[in-house]
Amino acid sequence: MIEAMRQVTLFLTCILLSAFGLMACEEKQVVSSKPYTGPQQETYDVQVVYSDSGHKVIRMVTPVQLDLLTGDRIFPKEIRLYFYDKAGTEHTWLRADSGRYIRMQNLYRMIGHVKIENRIKQETLETDELFWSPDRKRIYTDRPVTSRTPTGVTNGTGLVATQDFKQYGLGKVRNSQMQVNDLPE
């Protein structure tokens, strides 16, 4: 009889352990992961020089560049472009709060407090968004623009310019405040 009770106790112990084991098992769900869309590479203190026939044409400077899997680049901090003439003299610069390079279009988008200055002509241009196409060697926007020259200020909407800002045209001029120099008596 003791042997039978031992077998029953062992049998009940096995059943209890099996029940606890089954209760401890959880059903695991497979979670589908989203594809990674963040930067593939981060580069700091970036300085890139673009040249044409061995002559420095443009120098780009930015503290951070994020390279995406698509080939696009994000410049989350200030970005500056410096334009040079054939003699290597810097004549124009462009700065923006941030920017993005769109590889499929070979197009740079400058965003936030965008300012261009042609030092030779003493002209500046300000807007909040600007595009630079290296292929077409053009700078353009359809946003409000303020142009300052030694003779006055012009406000308009839209701009098309050569990438060196030596020639440009404003669209939809809203007002122009030209300064008149003192005339001789």
From TrEMBL:
PROSITE patterns: PROKAR_LIPOPROTEIN. One of its GO terms (cellular component) is plasma membrane. NCBIfam families: LptC_YrbK. It comes from Siphonobacter curvatus. The keyword Transmembrane applies. Gene3D superfamilies: Lipopolysaccharide (LPS) transport protein A like domain. This is LPS export ABC transporter periplasmic protein LptC. Keywords: Cell inner membrane, Cell membrane, Membrane, Transmembrane, Transmembrane helix. The gene is lptC. InterPro entries: LipoPS_assembly_LptC-rel, LPS_export_LptC, LptC. It holds the Pfam family LptC. One of its GO terms (molecular function) is glycolipid transfer activity. The keyword Transmembrane applies.
